[in-house]
Amino acid sequence: MTTAERPSLLLVEDDAALGPLISELLEPDFAVHLAVNGSDGLHLALTRSWDAMVIDRGLPVMDGIALIKAVRAKGIATPILILTALGATDEKIRGLDAGANDYMSKPFDAMELAARLRALTRTYALPPQTLGIGDWELDAGARSMRSMYGLVVTLTAKEAGLLEILAGEPERVFTREDLINALFHPTDQPGVIDTYVHHLRRKISKTVIRTVHGLGYQIGEPHD
Amino acid sequence: MTTAERPSLLLVEDDAALGPLISELLEPDFAVHLAVNGSDGLHLALTRSWDAMVIDRGLPVMDGIALIKAVRAKGIATPILILTALGATDEKIRGLDAGANDYMSKPFDAMELAARLRALTRTYALPPQTLGIGDWELDAGARSMRSMYGLVVTLTAKEAGLLEILAGEPERVFTREDLINALFHPTDQPGVIDTYVHHLRRKISKTVIRTVHGLGYQIGEPHD
DNA sequence: AGGAGTTCTTAAGAGCTTCTTAAACGCCGC
DNA sequence: GCGGCGTTTAAGAAGCTCTTAAGAACTCCT
């Protein structure tokens, strides 16, 4: 599931009215693909990669439970929510034990279905701690910068540290003294900073770090 | 979650009657640990590893929603089911969007709770556990690597272990300390890692494992 | 425009990290 | 016990990073 893209969702629903309706309801949050019977659904489930599936319990040709079992038997771990018209507890249990991760009974609330699917597709990996800097993104952990379109530049410890401090408070002007106290021995001479600013400008872009004459350096929105 | 063992479950429930009851109901399927308030629950959630958590919505001291948010904020991806006395749809949505994977409203059916927890803790491991690494594929079970077009290289235990760890979290930079703690005795000297990295690069390819100077090693998309 | 002060750029050596090689050690099967 | 293999240690070589320094270029002020 790529960032900033809607998660892809396979919806298997044979009801000619309900299918398009659910599809439309979920479209804001998901890229929905509708399959109108179990065998189409199975084929799509096995041949493409999905972020989640919503499967109707009562399908012609191939039952929803059988479909889920077939998908799971192939080792596919994609989250599945099963839709059932039946509210009885053991029907729910049968669906869950067949390999569904969740179920909802018809009639259902559209907002809740969306919320449940968000819960199923959500991932909790801590996003690599990144800082946005102009067109670039700093990954302090890996000490690298990535521009849009994937160009990656690796930084040294001092370069990354300097950039991190500057980017941590955009618009603030840091004096050389500020930066030396934060990054170097206070006994070092102020010129060190200039050198690293130069290195960074060479690696990333001339315009990312702005010089404030007589004061120090700054990161922020371009002035022109 | 080890095979053939009951999954571990953290139950956070303040009701003196309900807590032990749920605990008893789930014991056949899960190794239940009961925390009777939110702060105990949070502490246990953060300090131990669980296969699933069941959290009451209405807790004294620390609310269930706040507890879930705190756990998710730490990057913990353990499945969570939230118990709520409130049946209103937006209450359910709030719980799910806070980071819960599922909810149940009281009063609830014990069998259904167990079924839902089984669904949450179930894993769908693919038969051959392979990891893609650049143009190669690691078969950790057979401790071998296959390149596209069939070239096969066998690895030693340490080599395969090291590669597996690195490939398990692409882009993450592992320090030598990280790797030693995972693979070797913590008393071993950090240089061991360098040697195995060298062996791997000789066997597979120079470019698969990237050195991050001063930090450690990393696998990930090539940087050019 | 001229001068003083500030910033940029380049280079090079010191110091530290990583790579590479080799050899010693220990375990297991023969 | 012996041989082979995997593991670990060690040490010099190679490479990268840090820091200093000094001249060039620029900015600001008079």
Note down, in words, how this protein is organized:
The structure is a homodimer of 224-residue chains. Chain A contains eight helices and twelve strands. With 224 residues, chain A is an alpha/beta fold. The mean pLDDT of chain A is 82. In chain A, the strands form three sheets. A five-stranded parallel sheet of chain A has the order 2-1-3-4-5, with helices on both faces. In chain A, helix 2 (38-47) runs parallel beside helix 3 and helix 6 (157-168) crosses helix 8 (191-203). In chain A, a hairpin with a 4-residue loop joins strand 7 (136-139) and strand 8. Chain A binds a DNA duplex (30 and 30 nucleotides) through helix 8.
Total of DSSP H or I helical runs spanning 4+ residues of chain A: 8
For the terminal residues of chain A, how far apart are their CA atoms?
A: 37 Å
Which range does the strand content of chain A fall in?
Answer: 15-25%
- Spatial sequence of strands, sheet with the most strands of chain A: 2-1-3-4-5
Note poorly predicted spans of chain A.
none
Hey, which two chains have the biggest interface?
A-B, 39 and 40 residues
The largest sheet of chain A, given as strand count, sense and whether it forms a barrel, is: 5 strands, parallel
Q: What would the average pLDDT of chain A be, to the nearest integer?
A: 82
Order of helices and strands of chain A: EHEHEHEHEHEEEEHEHHEE
Extended strand count of chain A:
12
Structural class of chain A: alpha/beta
| Oligomer classification | homodimer
Please state the CA-atom Rg of chain A, rounded to the nearest Å: 26 Å
Considering DSSP H and I runs of 4 or more, what fraction of the residues of chain A is helical?
25-40%
